[in-house]
Amino acid sequence: MKVYDILGNKIKTLVNEEKSPGIYEVEFNSTSLSSGVYFYTLDVNGYSETKSMVLLK
Asked: For the chain, which has fewer Cβ within 10 Å, the N-terminal or C-terminal residue?
């Protein structure tokens, strides 16, 4: 799972390992980021999905 800014620059890689099926939580420290729209991408076995999120401070 990777996080990108509005310009498509990679901000952070949150998870980069294979996990067994289940429910997981990942902490995302955004203290160094400004408020705005960011995107996160999840890639799994050839499947990729990107969604947006709004960071408000």
From this structure: C
Dist CA 52 CA 47 (whole Å)? 17
Residue 40 in tokens: 């996160």
Q: Is the CB of residue 3 less than 8 Å from the CB of residue 40?
A: yes
Q: What is the pTM of this model?
A: 0.83
The long-range contacts involving 3-7, CB below 8 angstroms and separated by at least 24 positions, are 3/28, 3/38, 3/39, 3/40, 4/38, 4/39, 4/40, 4/41, 5/36, 5/38, 5/39, 6/36, 6/37, 6/38, 6/39
